[in-house]
Design brief:
Layout: H1 11-19, E1 36-42, H2 47-52, H3 60-67, E2 69-75, H4 83-90, H5 96-99, H6 134-141, E3 147-151, H7 154-158, E4 167-172, E5 175-177, H8 188-195, E6 206-207, E7 235-236, H9 241-247, H10 253-269, E8 278-284, H11 286-294, H12 299-322, E9 328-334, E10 355-356, H13 359-371, E11 379-382, E12 385-388, H14 397-411, E13 417-422, H15 435-441, E14 450-456, E15 461-462, H16 475-478, E16 479-485, E17 492-499, H17 503-511
Parallel strand pairs: 1-8, 1-9, 2-17, 3-4, 3-8, 10-15
Antiparallel strand pairs: 2-16, 4-5, 6-7, 9-16, 11-12, 12-14, 13-14
The chain binds zinc ion.
Zinc ion binds at residues 43-44, 83, 288, 335-336.
Length: 529
């Protein structure tokens, strides 16, 4: 029985209700209110991995797939499918156009007020992130809510939580740390975890296949993988402990360390004990590192995913021993997928993928500025977006426009270019049907001076690009799993088209809180009891 509608569950009502003595907190669906949301992002997880290796899962992925609401046609519905914009969308319910996190290089780094604590490395904070996330909606409703977010990557840990100053940690060199945005020193429990030097204990560790070799249909010896280096199993981590610890993120063993760190945090911080809902967010990064080296059709990524399943199983089982299972809910998704190497996908797509050098289009844009005596460094092409900085010497709106027109005209003559267009013209496309135009439109806030965009044919790569790639608006990079698991959700497979921006409003509804700003996403009511 529903005791209040989420629309009526303002902060006052829910705060009041949760403090009534002897009355158990209830969710919008009528069950006990979840005490802990476990939000899992797997960095670079294609949806088809779960379909391909389903029969080999015995751990956490099996548990979530068997007992959860699995949306099989979920997408990061924006064009630049990189880690930073993906992580910024999953718990905000908003596209990059609204979060302001548009690219990795304009993500979390280089905040002069947020140096790292205790180690050297890039400063990091959510200073570019705009608006709120589920964490803010929960803390608005109940100030006791706390969040712990961990990842190997700064952007993977920071962006799901937004601007909230919570417990946020990532891995730098050989230890977990944070930045001054979150505090002046590391808490004792993080220092104690680092002092165990767990990552260094993997020195000399061998990564071999988890299952018998016959379980893997992928060839192991593929020279195009990992630039021809270390392409065969087994693989051995360096014997030197510091070198092993810094190499660890590119192996499945780092997922085990992340899980151990997250579980330690849950215990030390007492998350999921109180009447409020706490958040544990974990972004498991190694799948991304393995994927960039070996690609989506490799024996390495297959073994990585099977091992991730086992690690997630031990992680969830440990969590259930610590906390009341009936009051834990889990959501799992990914920040993006990945595109196979063009050399390995010639038969898969039509036209056959190629490596495309779009530099002549940039040269054409710069030539327009140069002829007018303007600063040619105003022109930047990054991740398919042509940005022309209006603050540079001599750059006028008319000149920017002429340079962008020249860029588009030149790009359209380059084989392998699918779409080259002025950014402002994209809104006129049928955005319901034209996913690529829609994803570009949903990409940039109005204050980013993007003049034109370019998308290659499906499967094609920028030339030169040395490793396996993601970052395009195509299905390979956009299609990700979305799974909800726990008492409020109706188990089953859901084939409808949904977006990662739908995750946060759906969780908000399940947790009985109201978003504090308009969202792009909508509640996936089909999955809710
Ligand atoms: Zn990523």
């Amino acid at each position: 029985m529903s005791i209040f509608r989420p629309a009526l569950a303002g902060s006052l009502l829910s705060a009041l209700f949760s403090t009534l003595p002897g009355v158990r907190s209830m969710s919008a669906q009528g069950g006990p209110k979840p005490a802990l949301l476990v939000f899992i992002t797997v960095d670079q997880l294609r949806e088809d991995y779960l379909e391909r290796w389903l029969g080999q899962f015995t751990g956490g992925l099996k548990q979530l797939l068997d007992g959860g609401a699995f949306f099989t046609n979920g997408h990061q519905d924006h064009a630049i499918t990189e880690t930073a914009p993906g992580h910024a969308s999953v718990m905000s319910g908003r596209f990059p156009r609204s979060t302001g996190i548009t690219r990795n290089i304009a993500g979390v780094n280089n905040d002069p007020n947020a140096p790292l604590i205790g180690v050297n490395g890039l400063s990091a904070s959510p200073f570019r992130f705009r608006g709120s996330t589920l964490t803010d909606w929960l803390t608005t409703a109940d100030a006791r809510t706390r969040a712990l977010s961990v990842s190997v990557k700064d952007r993977g840990a920071i962006l799901p939580i937004g601007r909230s100053r919570q417990q946020v940690y990532w891995y730098v060199g050989t230890t977990f740390t944070t930045s001054k945005y979150y505090g002046d020193s590391l808490p004792d429990w993080v220092k104690a975890f680092d002092a165990r030097h767990l990552p260094e204990h993997f020195a000399g560790k061998v990564w071999d296949l988890l299952l018998p070799p016959a379980s893997y249909s992928e060839p192991d010896s593929v020279p195009a993988e990992n630039q021809g280096r270390s392409i065969m199993f087994p693989k051995t981590l360096p014997g030197d402990s510091a070198l092993a610890a810094s190499a660890l993120p590119a192996t499945p063993f780092m997922d085990e360390v992340l899980a151990a760190f997250a579980l330690d945090g849950v215990q030390q911080l007492g998350l999921g004990r109180g009447p409020e809902t706490d958040i544990l967010a974990v972004s498991f990064s190694p799948t991304d590192y393995v994927g960039h080296a070996y690609g989506p059709d490799s024996r390495e990524i297959h073994d990585q995913i099977v091992r991730l399943d086992r690690t997630l199983g031990r992680f969830l089982d440990s969590l259930y021993r610590l906390r009341d299972r009936s009051r834990v809910i889990v959501a799992l998704t990914a920040d993006h997928g990945v595109t196979p190497l063009p050399e390995l996908s010639q038969q898969r797509y039509s036209p056959p993928p190629q490596r495309v050098n779009v530099r002549p289009a940039v040269v054409a844009a710069r030539a327009v500025l140069s002829r007018a005596g303007a600063d040619t460094l105003a022109v930047e092409l990054e991740s398919g977006a042509l940005i022309i900085d209006p603050a540079r010497t001599g750059v006028t709106p008319a000149l920017s426009s002429a340079a962008a027109d020249s860029f588009v005209a030149t790009a359209r003559r380059i084989p392998g270019v699918l779409l080259a267009e002025r950014f402002a013209a994209l809104a006129a496309h049928d955005l319901g049907k034209d996913a690529i135009a829609r994803r570009w439109v949903q990409m940039f806030p109005p204050d980013v001076p993007v003049q034109a965009v370019i998308t290659l044919t499906r499967g094609s790569y920028w030339d030169p690009y040395p490793v396996v790639m993601h970052g395009t608006p195509h299905e390979d990079d956009s299609h990700v799993p979305i799974i909800f698991f726990g008492a409020p959700f109706k188990p089953g497979r859901y084939p409808q088209f949904v977006r990662t921006v739908d995750i946060a409003p759906t969780l908000a509804q399940a947790l009985g809180v109201t978003p504090t700003e308009p969202l792009d996403g909508r509640v996936l009511t089909a999955a809710l009891k």
